[in-house]
Write a structure and sequence with these properties.
Strand content: over 45%
Helix content: 25-40%
Strand order of the largest sheet: 5-4-1-6
Shape: flat
Order of helices and strands: HEEEEEHEEE
Amino acid sequence: MDFDDVFLIGVIIGVLILVVIGIGAIIYQDISYGEKEGIIIDKYYEKAYTTHSVMYVGKVLIPRNHYHPESWNLKLEKEVNGEKKTIVISVNKSDYDTYNVGDYYKKGEYEYDLVSNNAIYDRTSP
């Protein structure tokens, strides 16, 4: 093995370590927040869009398109162990339209009939 091979292996290992750390941080944030519930402090819609990038395949530069679907997002806040935590979650359009800023959101509060998109069971009522 020459220097270039050792360098390439080192770069690959470094990138893999960063990816694992990044995934771990995302999982930690998700776990430390707990159940997806809280007061809605912001809500926003992101329309669908496409990004473009290029990558080398051998010595040929290949263009790639990446489609990102539309999404409906709620920013929730709640107190966990005496400290305020926030998290952004993606929800379906029906939940996005149902809830407003200042409302309390709890995932799974309603179940929907997927055909008519109507609430059929309210888990908050006795």
